[in-house]
Write a structure and sequence with these properties.
About 40% of the residues lie in helices and about 10% in strands. The protein is an alpha/beta fold. Helix 1 packs across helix 5 and helix 10 packs parallel to helix 11. It is elongated. The protein starts with a helix and ends with a helix.
Length: about 325
């Protein structure tokens, strides 16, 4: 087995499993080290252990792969972290409108995110790094966002498009955490609340309604902010008038995100049903912070299919031309 492919697949499976970022980075670093060696240097197994970027665990994987075996650690991860059984809806998804790179709090470069999206068969991926207020996530200032926008066109080809975007923070008063002229130039704007999640019901409702009603916003991200599992612990959902928020979404054509991260399951099933009843559009997104997490779309697709959400009302099933027509008309 090719050791670089083995190391990369292990990194992707660790990312999908939302393991410590240091684990996946170690395997990606080892793959980069191998990629920088010539064939003779790679075959010199005895000296590989002394190479910078290769530790005990990664060396074992490399040695097993070079001996013709599927590395034991890879086999274990394949068995434990394999994608769940795909729903019919998953096969209809054409892209993903919520993903992060190392420009903010993602683990890898843009090109690795793009490579993973292409490998999954995506037609498009929106790069939605955080906005400046979220300092813990290295949110992008207006200047840094402009720098990012300059490199995005270089990732397009005949079969794939990297869309410009942002996950913009919804401020306490419902305003958006980025310059207006920049938001209007982006292909996709996902608006999410990341702070003051325990705000009282009335002001939280006003805050989310304002964001859902803003013509610059395309998708309302992880609307309740809840966490149901995972390394960050659990967090209860924000309290707000969900009917008022989803009615604003329906009136202004803002899609409600079905966040595919298993630790979120946001919105909860009852709120998905309410948004469906009210007539909202939906966007099934991965909220990926690493290449291996782009495959989490299968979780969101299963939830949406179980809730009876029609594919036609899921904007990430739309072809790129229709999606762009919709976003530009808002």
């Amino acid at each position: 087995m090719d050791p670089i492919e083995a190391l990369t697949e292990i990194a992707e499976l660790l990312e999908r499993d939302r393991a410590s970022r240091y684990k996946s980075k170690a395997f990606r670093a080892a793959a980069d080290t191998l990629a920088g060696l010539n064939a003779d240097e790679r075959a010199d197994v005895g000296r590989l252990r002394s190479r910078k970027g290769i530790g005990d665990s990664t060396y074992k994987v490399i040695a097993e792969a070079l001996s013709g075996e599927v590395p034991a650690y890879l086999a274990e991860l394949r068995n434990r972290v394999a994608p769940i059984e795909q729903s019919q809806l998953r096969s209809l998804l054409r892209g993903d409108l919520h993903a992060h790179s190392e420009w903010s709090d993602g683990l890898t470069s843009i090109d690795l995110m793009v490579d993973a999206a292409r490998a999954l068969g995506h037609e498009y991926l929106a790069l939605t790094d955080h906005s400046p207020r979220l300092r813990v996530a290295r949110g992008l200032s207006a200047e840094r966002l402009r720098e990012q926008l300059a490199v995005i066109p270089g990732f397009a080809d005949e079969s794939f498009t990297l869309l410009s975007g942002i996950e913009v923070d919804i401020l306490d008063d419902g305003s958006l955490d980025q310059e207006d002229d920049l938001l209007r130039t982006l292909d996709v704007v996902v608006a999410s609340a990341h702070s003051a999640l325990r705000m009282e019901r009335a002001p939280m409702t006003r805050r989310l309604v304002a964001a859902a009603s803003d013509p610059r916003v395309d998708v309302l991200g992880h609307v309740t902010g809840r966490l149901v599992s995972g390394s960050r612990g659990t967090r209860p959902p924000s309290v707000f008038d969900a009917r008022a928020v989803f009615e604003a979404c329906a009136e202004h054509g803002t899609a409600v995100e079905i966040n595919s991260r298993p630790e979120r399951e946001d919105p909860p099933d009852d709120l998905v049903a309410l948004a469906l009843e009210i007539g909202c559009l939906f966007s099934i997104d991965s909220d990926a912070h690493a290449p291996g997490q782009l495959s989490l779309l299968d979780h969101g697709a299963v939830r949406a299919e179980r809730a009876g959400v029609p594919a036609e009302r899921i904007i990430t099933t739309w072809p790129l031309a229709r999606l762009r027509e919709w976003t530009s008309s808002r």
